[in-house]
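User: Quick sanity check before I run a bigger batch. Here is a single chain. Can you write out its predicted 3D structure?
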Amino acid sequence: MVVDENDLCFFDHPLDHVPGMVLVAGVLDVLGDRAPEWVDAAGGRLRLSMSFDRMCELGPPVLLSGGPIAADDGPAWELVALQDGEAVSRATVRFGGTPAPVGSGREGAVPADPALVHRHRPENVLLGGAVRVERAAVLVPPPGHRLAGAGVHTLGALVESARQMATMLGHTAHGRDLDAQMLWLSLEADLPTGLPVEVPLELWWEFAPARGARAVFRFAVVDAESGEGYGRLQIGVHTLSRAGYLKRRSAK
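Assistant: Done. Predicted structure follows.
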Protein backbone atom coordinates (compact mmCIF):
# COMPACT_ATOMS: atom_id res chain seq x y z
CA MET A 1 0.00 0.00 0.00
CA VAL A 2 1.34 3.43 -0.93
CA VAL A 3 1.72 5.85 2.00
CA ASP A 4 2.55 9.20 0.41
CA GLU A 5 3.41 11.81 3.05
CA ASN A 6 3.25 14.46 0.33
CA ASP A 7 -0.44 13.73 -0.23
CA LEU A 8 -2.05 16.91 1.11
CA CYS A 9 -5.44 15.23 1.41
CA PHE A 10 -4.41 12.76 4.11
CA PHE A 11 -1.33 14.62 5.40
CA ASP A 12 -3.02 18.00 5.61
CA HIS A 13 -0.68 18.81 8.53
CA PRO A 14 2.37 17.09 10.04
CA LEU A 15 1.57 13.69 11.61
CA ASP A 16 3.66 11.15 13.49
CA HIS A 17 1.66 8.15 12.24
CA VAL A 18 -0.33 6.92 9.25
CA PRO A 19 -3.89 8.23 9.63
CA GLY A 20 -6.82 5.84 9.56
CA MET A 21 -8.20 7.39 6.37
CA VAL A 22 -5.10 6.21 4.49
CA LEU A 23 -5.99 2.64 5.47
CA VAL A 24 -9.62 3.18 4.43
CA ALA A 25 -8.52 4.66 1.11
CA GLY A 26 -6.13 1.76 0.59
CA VAL A 27 -8.98 -0.73 0.96
CA LEU A 28 -11.19 1.25 -1.42
CA ASP A 29 -8.35 1.60 -3.94
CA VAL A 30 -7.82 -2.17 -3.99
CA LEU A 31 -11.53 -2.73 -4.55
CA GLY A 32 -11.57 -0.06 -7.24
CA ASP A 33 -8.77 -1.91 -9.06
CA ARG A 34 -10.20 -5.41 -8.59
CA ALA A 35 -13.94 -4.74 -8.88
CA PRO A 36 -14.58 -1.31 -10.45
CA GLU A 37 -17.95 -2.47 -11.75
CA TRP A 38 -19.14 -2.75 -8.13
CA VAL A 39 -17.42 0.28 -6.61
CA ASP A 40 -18.86 2.58 -9.29
CA ALA A 41 -22.21 0.84 -9.82
CA ALA A 42 -25.15 3.23 -9.97
CA GLY A 43 -27.77 2.20 -7.43
CA GLY A 44 -25.42 -0.27 -5.73
CA ARG A 45 -24.33 -0.55 -2.13
CA LEU A 46 -21.14 -1.07 -0.19
CA ARG A 47 -21.03 -2.44 3.33
CA LEU A 48 -17.67 -1.96 4.97
CA SER A 49 -16.55 -3.08 8.43
CA MET A 50 -13.06 -2.16 9.65
CA SER A 51 -11.13 -2.52 12.88
CA PHE A 52 -8.02 -0.52 13.72
CA ASP A 53 -5.96 -2.85 15.87
CA ARG A 54 -2.91 -0.72 16.52
CA MET A 55 -1.36 2.50 15.33
CA CYS A 56 0.17 2.38 11.86
CA GLU A 57 3.62 3.92 11.90
CA LEU A 58 5.35 6.06 9.31
CA GLY A 59 8.31 4.47 7.56
CA PRO A 60 7.81 0.69 7.62
CA PRO A 61 5.95 -0.58 4.54
CA VAL A 62 2.29 -1.51 4.85
CA LEU A 63 1.13 -4.64 3.02
CA LEU A 64 -2.55 -4.96 2.22
CA SER A 65 -3.49 -8.56 1.51
CA GLY A 66 -6.56 -10.74 1.32
CA GLY A 67 -9.10 -11.87 -1.20
CA PRO A 68 -12.67 -12.85 -1.99
CA ILE A 69 -14.81 -14.72 0.55
CA ALA A 70 -18.09 -16.55 0.22
CA ALA A 71 -21.25 -14.47 0.69
CA ASP A 72 -24.93 -15.04 -0.07
CA ASP A 73 -25.93 -11.58 -1.28
CA GLY A 74 -23.10 -10.36 -3.51
CA PRO A 75 -19.30 -10.19 -3.88
CA ALA A 76 -17.32 -9.96 -0.64
CA TRP A 77 -13.69 -9.57 0.39
CA GLU A 78 -11.61 -9.77 3.54
CA LEU A 79 -8.44 -7.68 3.72
CA VAL A 80 -5.79 -7.11 6.35
CA ALA A 81 -3.16 -4.35 6.54
CA LEU A 82 0.13 -5.68 7.89
CA GLN A 83 3.14 -3.75 9.17
CA ASP A 84 6.22 -5.54 10.47
CA GLY A 85 4.20 -8.75 10.30
CA GLU A 86 1.43 -7.51 12.60
CA ALA A 87 -2.11 -6.50 11.69
CA VAL A 88 -2.80 -2.79 12.02
CA SER A 89 -6.25 -2.96 10.44
CA ARG A 90 -8.75 -5.54 9.18
CA ALA A 91 -11.60 -5.02 6.74
CA THR A 92 -14.61 -6.95 5.50
CA VAL A 93 -16.34 -5.57 2.41
CA ARG A 94 -19.60 -6.63 0.82
CA PHE A 95 -21.35 -5.26 -2.24
CA GLY A 96 -25.05 -5.44 -2.93
CA GLY A 97 -27.70 -6.51 -0.46
CA THR A 98 -30.56 -4.61 1.08
CA PRO A 99 -29.74 -1.24 2.67
CA ALA A 100 -30.26 -0.83 6.39
CA PRO A 101 -33.36 1.33 6.99
CA VAL A 102 -32.78 4.92 8.00
CA GLY A 103 -35.87 5.76 10.02
CA SER A 104 -36.99 8.76 12.02
CA GLY A 105 -36.50 7.00 15.34
CA ARG A 106 -40.08 7.72 16.41
CA GLU A 107 -40.95 4.01 16.59
CA GLY A 108 -38.58 3.54 19.51
CA ALA A 109 -39.04 6.95 21.11
CA VAL A 110 -38.71 7.10 24.90
CA PRO A 111 -41.38 9.12 26.76
CA ALA A 112 -40.30 12.39 28.32
CA ASP A 113 -39.72 12.59 32.06
CA PRO A 114 -43.22 13.09 33.55
CA ALA A 115 -41.89 15.74 35.93
CA LEU A 116 -40.61 17.84 33.02
CA VAL A 117 -44.05 17.94 31.38
CA HIS A 118 -45.92 18.36 34.69
CA ARG A 119 -47.65 14.98 34.60
CA HIS A 120 -47.85 12.42 37.38
CA ARG A 121 -49.23 9.42 35.50
CA PRO A 122 -46.94 7.89 32.84
CA GLU A 123 -49.90 7.14 30.56
CA ASN A 124 -50.60 10.88 30.39
CA VAL A 125 -47.18 11.64 28.92
CA LEU A 126 -47.84 12.21 25.22
CA LEU A 127 -44.43 13.54 24.29
CA GLY A 128 -41.18 11.78 23.63
CA GLY A 129 -38.01 13.02 25.24
CA ALA A 130 -36.31 15.84 23.37
CA VAL A 131 -33.65 14.59 20.97
CA ARG A 132 -30.75 16.80 20.02
CA VAL A 133 -29.89 16.27 16.36
CA GLU A 134 -26.80 17.76 14.74
CA ARG A 135 -26.87 18.14 10.94
CA ALA A 136 -24.02 19.04 8.61
CA ALA A 137 -23.83 19.23 4.83
CA VAL A 138 -21.60 16.80 2.95
CA LEU A 139 -19.40 18.92 0.67
CA VAL A 140 -18.24 17.62 -2.70
CA PRO A 141 -14.43 17.61 -3.17
CA PRO A 142 -13.19 19.91 -5.95
CA PRO A 143 -12.03 18.41 -9.27
CA GLY A 144 -8.62 16.81 -8.98
CA HIS A 145 -8.97 16.19 -5.25
CA ARG A 146 -7.81 12.77 -4.02
CA LEU A 147 -11.37 11.87 -2.98
CA ALA A 148 -13.22 13.40 -5.93
CA GLY A 149 -15.25 11.24 -8.30
CA ALA A 150 -16.63 11.51 -11.81
CA GLY A 151 -19.86 13.23 -10.89
CA VAL A 152 -20.70 10.95 -7.96
CA HIS A 153 -20.36 11.00 -4.18
CA THR A 154 -17.34 8.76 -3.68
CA LEU A 155 -17.20 6.27 -0.84
CA GLY A 156 -13.94 7.78 0.40
CA ALA A 157 -15.38 11.29 0.51
CA LEU A 158 -18.41 10.10 2.50
CA VAL A 159 -16.21 8.33 5.05
CA GLU A 160 -13.92 11.36 5.33
CA SER A 161 -16.95 13.63 5.86
CA ALA A 162 -18.07 11.39 8.73
CA ARG A 163 -14.56 11.36 10.20
CA GLN A 164 -14.47 15.15 10.15
CA MET A 165 -17.91 15.39 11.76
CA ALA A 166 -16.90 12.95 14.50
CA THR A 167 -13.81 15.06 15.14
CA MET A 168 -15.88 18.26 15.27
CA LEU A 169 -18.48 16.74 17.60
CA GLY A 170 -15.73 15.53 19.90
CA HIS A 171 -14.97 19.20 20.51
CA THR A 172 -18.42 20.81 20.27
CA ALA A 173 -20.61 18.09 21.83
CA HIS A 174 -18.22 16.18 24.11
CA GLY A 175 -16.03 19.08 25.19
CA ARG A 176 -12.69 17.65 24.07
CA ASP A 177 -9.79 20.09 23.91
CA LEU A 178 -8.85 21.29 20.44
CA ASP A 179 -5.44 19.61 20.68
CA ALA A 180 -6.90 16.24 21.76
CA GLN A 181 -6.01 13.25 19.57
CA MET A 182 -8.83 11.04 18.24
CA LEU A 183 -7.73 7.48 17.46
CA TRP A 184 -9.97 5.24 15.37
CA LEU A 185 -11.12 1.94 16.84
CA SER A 186 -13.70 0.86 14.27
CA LEU A 187 -15.62 1.86 11.17
CA GLU A 188 -18.96 0.53 9.94
CA ALA A 189 -20.48 1.80 6.70
CA ASP A 190 -23.56 0.99 4.64
CA LEU A 191 -23.39 3.38 1.70
CA PRO A 192 -24.73 3.87 -1.82
CA THR A 193 -22.41 3.60 -4.80
CA GLY A 194 -22.69 5.77 -7.90
CA LEU A 195 -24.91 8.38 -6.22
CA PRO A 196 -24.81 11.59 -8.33
CA VAL A 197 -23.34 14.69 -6.67
CA GLU A 198 -26.50 16.53 -7.68
CA VAL A 199 -28.15 14.76 -4.71
CA PRO A 200 -27.44 17.09 -1.75
CA LEU A 201 -26.42 15.05 1.26
CA GLU A 202 -26.27 15.72 4.98
CA LEU A 203 -24.98 13.75 7.94
CA TRP A 204 -27.40 13.54 10.88
CA TRP A 205 -26.28 12.66 14.40
CA GLU A 206 -28.45 12.13 17.45
CA PHE A 207 -26.58 13.27 20.54
CA ALA A 208 -24.99 10.44 22.53
CA PRO A 209 -22.60 11.07 25.42
CA ALA A 210 -19.06 9.78 25.40
CA ARG A 211 -18.15 6.95 27.74
CA GLY A 212 -14.95 8.17 29.30
CA ALA A 213 -12.29 8.43 26.62
CA ARG A 214 -14.34 6.38 24.17
CA ALA A 215 -17.26 7.30 21.96
CA VAL A 216 -19.24 5.84 19.07
CA PHE A 217 -20.57 8.31 16.50
CA ARG A 218 -23.51 7.02 14.46
CA PHE A 219 -24.48 9.05 11.40
CA ALA A 220 -27.37 8.80 8.99
CA VAL A 221 -26.60 9.81 5.39
CA VAL A 222 -29.69 11.76 4.32
CA ASP A 223 -30.97 13.70 1.30
CA ALA A 224 -30.81 17.30 2.52
CA GLU A 225 -33.98 18.26 0.62
CA SER A 226 -36.30 15.26 0.88
CA GLY A 227 -35.02 13.69 4.10
CA GLU A 228 -34.67 10.33 2.33
CA GLY A 229 -32.12 8.11 3.99
CA TYR A 230 -29.30 6.80 1.81
CA GLY A 231 -27.05 5.05 4.28
CA ARG A 232 -25.28 4.90 7.62
CA LEU A 233 -21.81 5.42 9.02
CA GLN A 234 -20.49 4.55 12.47
CA ILE A 235 -17.07 5.46 13.83
CA GLY A 236 -15.72 4.25 17.16
CA VAL A 237 -12.94 6.37 18.65
CA HIS A 238 -10.63 6.63 21.64
CA THR A 239 -9.70 10.23 22.44
CA LEU A 240 -6.55 11.19 24.33
CA SER A 241 -5.45 14.54 25.67
CA ARG A 242 -2.34 15.94 24.06
CA ALA A 243 -0.29 15.01 27.11
CA GLY A 244 -1.82 11.52 27.20
CA TYR A 245 -1.13 11.00 23.53
CA LEU A 246 2.52 12.09 23.82
CA LYS A 247 2.97 9.80 26.83
CA ARG A 248 1.56 6.89 24.87
CA ARG A 249 3.79 7.60 21.88
CA SER A 250 6.91 7.90 24.03
CA ALA A 251 6.21 4.48 25.57
CA LYS A 252 5.95 2.64 22.23
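The two ends are 23 Å apart (CA to CA).

User: Great, the batch can go ahead then.
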